[in-house]
Amino acid sequence: MPPIEKVILVGAILILLSIVSSKLSARFGVPVLVLFLGLGMLAGSEGIGGIEFENYAQANAVGTVALALILFDGGLSTPAKAVRLAWKPSFLLATVGVLLTAVVTGLAASWILGVGLLEGLLLGGIVGSTDAAAVFAALRSGGVRLSERLGATLELESGANDPMAIFLTVGLLEVLTGGMEWGPGLLGLFALQMGLGAAVGLGLGFVSAWLINRIDLDSLSLYPIFASALGLLSFGATALLGGSGFLAIYLTGIVLGNRPIAARTGIIRFHNTVGWLAQIVMFVVLGLLSFPSQLWNVADRGLMLAAILILVARPLAVLLTLAPFRFGGFHARELIFLSWVGLKGAVPITLATFPFFVGLPEAPLLFNVVFFIVLVSALGQGWTLPALAARLGLQRPLEPSPPVTLEISSFRHVDGEVMEYTIAEDSAAVGKAVRDLALPNRAVIALIARGRSIIPPQGSTRVQAGDHLIFVLDPETRPLVDAVFARRGVPETSSSSEIPLQIEFPLRGSTTVGQLRDCYGLNLDAADHLTLDEAIRHRLQAHGVTPALGEGVVFESIRLSIRELGSDCRIEQVGMMILPNEELSADQDSPPRSVQANPDAPEDDLVEATPSPEKSKHRRHGPPPRITA
């Protein structure tokens, strides 16, 4: 064992070289995992570094911890919308798809390597899953931006299919060593690992969110560490009980990342950093474990198996898994891309160390073949992802990197969000002054970043294409802000259907009818120059109704109600709700009481006198939030 000072020095140099070499990924398109693996191989005993490392147990331990942290980071960064959008195809590909891939590859491995059927299937199980670290790196940092459904499917599948590969590896090793029989034993192991993994992962996710919001830590820096400990608790407890710790920590991350928690931004950023560090350490250590001369000895067989895995097993698994469900709603070009993105990474190499622990005679052969397959997959598939996505017409324009960011740091969860929008040329906001944007109440532009300049927004400041706007807003106003700033379309094509129905959004009474139409595509049967205060007041007065809290009127399909009155009885805040066709028809068929109370009022003017329900707000006590730029 070298002195600790030397270990620290060598470790620091390897990490620095890994970070510097990652610049090559963006410049030349080389997958980062290949660079990290290659750096480890160069530093190994047969490379220029000459570092002797052949401890499979230590490599397995490093890979396990690193992968757990990578999956936790992946879960934290996975929005609930992506889960709802793609959980069905992802679940099928992560289970049935992995099994089919393992069987096809395993049968080929048994013949090509000249090993027994069980040993061949073991190799198929080891390389059957797509690697979460590889896919996350390729999609999130490799310059590939796909449709929401396709991208979410690939990320969810890669995060959820490692437990299936681990189950196949452990189960087949148990059968090979005589510790388990085919049939009920394997099925029981599968149910135990997946059932416990899902139950503990989801349960601890909700408990973790509750604990983070209830604990009163002295420093914001402790919250990310606290979240890490909770994630590792999920992993360790599940694994100790016999379940899949990888599935548990991934699900805990998903739940935690989609709950309102204190120090949420800091927690996510911290684990994104930890995830990168884990990738570097894991791939470099696994690179150290390899011997290039031994890889060369299995190159011909490894190349054949890699070709079968990439060109036959993965595409066949995708088609057979999704075919009974009409291919999950994916068209042919997306299915081709799904078939190609079967990236292999650290998980197969880590699993390939398992046969050494049970003394399997074929362990060295399996390890070297798996390592070679991973290299071929990372280079062949990872390198071609951007070109294939563009060739198939699946690549979407990348969002420009924000020049500045803003966050709210709080010891308690607060009812507020910081949202960032980069203004496209066809945005409805382009060319408008800030005062003409019809922003909802409790939504303000904190700053505008234009090139290298930071512009404090004023009423006369005009929004330009390419501007980066940072909002501080109440969460209930977000759909309305998204409708203007996150939408890709010209104002003339917008419609009220883009804004959720039957949700009351707060607007300022000073907003004009024309601004409402220009920004949101909403048409009111009133003159453009009228403010909402004036439009509501005129409609109510036409029916002899005095403006009061809860009073409301319906303009075509839009209901406007009075939320707040000023000291001079002006309407300061308006609640706007888009009505569904059924409710609108009911309103038109049954005039409200206030219309009936004034028989001289015009029949086509609909007035609602029923107060709208007010949303209760609970003030959270504690130190005020700090805003940092």
Give a description of the structure:
The protein is an alpha+beta fold and 629 residues long. The chain folds into three domains: 4-15 and 55-391, Up-down Bundle (Na+/H+ antiporter like fold), CATH 1.20.1530; 399-494, Regulator of K+ conductance, C-terminal domain (Alpha-Beta Plaits), CATH 3.30.70; 505-616, Uridine Diphospho-n-acetylenolpyruvylglucosamine Reductase, domain 3 (2-Layer Sandwich), CATH 3.30.465.10. The chain has 23 helices and eleven strands. The protein has helices at residues 4-28, 32-43, 56-76, 80-113, 117-126, 132-141, 148-160, 162-176, 184-214, 222-240, 245-257, 264-288, 292-297, 299-322, 332-340, 346-351, 354-357, 363-391, 478-485, 513-520, 532-542, 581-589, 593-597; strands at 407-409, 417-422, 443-450, 453-455, 468-473, 505-508, 552-555, 558-565, 571-578, 606-608, 626-628. The strands form three sheets. Strands 6-9-8-7-10 form a five-stranded antiparallel β-sheet. A four-stranded antiparallel β-sheet has the order 2-5-3-4, with helices on one face. Strand 8 and strand 9 form a beta hairpin. Helix 1 (4-28) runs antiparallel to helix 2, helix 2 (32-43) crosses helix 12 (264-288) and helix 4 (80-113) runs antiparallel to helix 5 (117-126). The longest helix has 34 residues, at 80-113. The radius of gyration is 29 Å and the shape is elongated. Mean pLDDT is 80; it is low at 488-497 and 587-629. Keywords: Antiport, Cell membrane, Ion transport, Membrane, Potassium, Potassium transport, Transmembrane, Transmembrane helix, Transport. It is found in: Cell membrane. This is Potassium/proton antiporter, CPA1 family.
